[in-house]
Specification:
By secondary structure, the protein is an all-alpha fold. The chain has three domains: 300 residues, no CATH class; 73 residues, no CATH class; 36 residues, no CATH class. The chain has 20 helices and four strands. It has a two-stranded antiparallel ribbon. The chain has a two-stranded antiparallel ribbon with strand order 3-4. The relative contact order is 0.13. The model has no long low-confidence stretch (mean pLDDT 91).
């Protein structure tokens, strides 16, 4: 059922006093406080990276075209030049005329659409990072709101929200705000909205998994839907599906989280949930395919393959293979190693190859290693990516949910995470350059119910949960600082 449940002591008196005080505050006040803290945390680290593809795309949309001006002379970081800009699909590739100027962006357009009102006011001077920080902080508030639909205590709800906002690589992505990370932040906004709507419409989502209907039952359900199609539509689930589909127009791989809405949400049965959410999601996804067709002549944007060949031939040290497909099972093993086994460079004597190599460290006889000294560090994160369990160990709190009693909520969340992660692992790139494993942002919203339910099933926010979340926050703070030091 929806709503908070009671919880015992955490094992720490100061924390119990803090939780008791927070329990008396209105949920809206707690959520607003989390948004405020996120705003400060996301803005303060600072960033001087300036990849603003979506600002140029929004500017083009405002002029009635999908084609951005390119290349435009101008120094990197000024906002008014883009000749240095990578990850574009030159229009000459579409026309076949090498003299053609202009370019298309291979990325789905939702982030540019979100930027439209800002670009309408400030043009190419729009600070995409500032918008990312604002939207990222709002996402923290949305996580708090969405988790309110779970049958967990307020303390679990708060701990899970803190983990999301500050203990995952979402923090790194939101505070950075460059093109690729802003797409993640935008997608997470609408995934959280979809999850929140679905949970609010389904107070019994954590009940046992419902039985799959027999062939006869399925045939009768299909016949009923044909005779009375409107009977299969649940308006709340339709809305959840629409929001989910909108998220897919920022990050395509989010679409593989669809099983969540088959098992969780309004409608009363998996068929009604699936039909309702499917119709809602089909609208923005169909518009995305129409956009691709209108701008490139293809349903699936050829800019991805173009960029793949450029990167595979240009960054040979990353072990890309231009003769393989952009999504290829042969990438699975090396990508699994990044996702689960990649570690920082500990006590390095030289810059690791993945960070450029060629520079000796700690060369002075009296050199003393420190936490954030680029010339003589204790440890350096690897820009190819790092283990998700190392950077966010509190994901382990989901295990009691995954390994324990099955429910529609747990099954839907786990399958969504599994499917999205698997498809991303087939991709040639795993998010380089980055701190941690940025593709986890595609499934982080679906993982949050697992973390919350797992924590609740262990009895609430105990010392183990506190330590794992605190470690996650500390590690991601370290990563944010290092990322900015390195200029990633």
């Amino acid at each position: 059922m929806v709503g908070s449940v009671a919880e015992g002591a955490s094992g720490s008196r100061p924390l119990d006093l803090l939780f008791a005080w927070l329990d008396r505050l209105p949920a809206l006040i707690v959520g607003a406080g989390l948004v405020g803290i996120a705003l400060a945390a996301y803005w303060l680290p600072g960033s001087d990276r300036f990849y603003n593809h979506f600002v140029w795309q929004a500017e083009a949309f405002l002029h009635g075209t999908a084609v951005i001006e390119w290349p435009v002379e101008g120094a990197y970081g000024t906002g008014f030049g883009n000749g240095w800009m990578q990850d574009v699909y030159p229009l000459r590739e579409v026309t076949g005329d090498p003299s053609t100027t202009g370019a298309l962006l291979p990325f789905p357009p939702l982030p540019a659409i979100v930027l439209l009102p800002f670009v309408a006011m400030w043009g190419l001077a729009t600070d995409i990072r500032a918008v990312s920080v604002l939207l990222g902080a709002i996402d923290v508030g949305l996580a708090w709101w969405a988790l309110g639909g779970l049958a967990v205590s307020r303390r679990v709800r708060l701990a899970t929200t803190v983990f999301f906002g500050f203990g995952t690589v979402f923090w790194y992505g939101a505070q950075l705000g460059t093109t690729w990370f802003f797409a993640h932040v935008t997608a997470v906004t609408f995934v959280l909205l979809a999850i929140g709507v679905a949970l609010a419409a389904d107070p019994d989502a954590d009940e046992e998994v419902e039985a799959v209907p027999s062939a006869g039952g399925l045939a009768r359900a299909i016949a009923t839907s044909i005779r009375r199609p409107l009977d299969q539509i649940d308006r709340r689930q339709l809305l959840a599906g629409l929001l989910f589909g909108i998220a897919c127009t920022a990050r395509l791989t989010v679409v593989f989280g669809a099983p969540f809405l088959m098992l969780v949400g309004g409608g009363g049965s998996w068929i009604r949930r699936s039909v309702s959410a499917g119709i809602g999601a089909a609208i923005p996804i169909a518009l995305l395919l129409a956009y691709n067709l209108a701008t490139t002549g293809h349903l699936f944007h050829p800019g991805y393959e173009y960029q793949y060949q450029l990167e595979a031939n240009g960054y040979q040290a990353l072990n890309y293979h231009p003769d393989w497909s952009i999504e290829d099972a042969r990438y699975l093993l090396q990508n699994l190693q990044i996702m689960f086994l990649s570690t920082p460079a500990l006590f390095p004597d030289h810059v690791p190859a993945s960070l450029g190599g060629g520079r000796e460290l700690c060369v002075a006889a009296d050199a003393v290693r420190s936490l954030f000294d680029k010339s003589c560090p204790i440890a350096m994160p690897r820009d190819i990516g790092m283990s998700i369990l190392l950077t966010s160990p509190a994901y382990l709190l989901a295990l009691p949910a995954i390994l324990g009693r099955r429910s529609r909520l747990v099954a839907g969340s786990f399958i969504a995470v599994l499917f999205i992660a698997f498809v991303n692992l087939l991709h040639f790139s795993q998010g380089w350059v980055q701190f941690g494993y940025r593709f986890s942002n595609d499934f982080v919203a679906f993982a949050l119910p697992l973390v919350a339910v797992g924590m609740q099933r262990r009895g609430g926010v105990g010392l183990l949960a506190i330590w794992l979340i605190a470690a996650s926050v500390a590690i991601n703070l370290w990563g944010v600082i290092w990322g900015n030091l390195q200029g990633w």
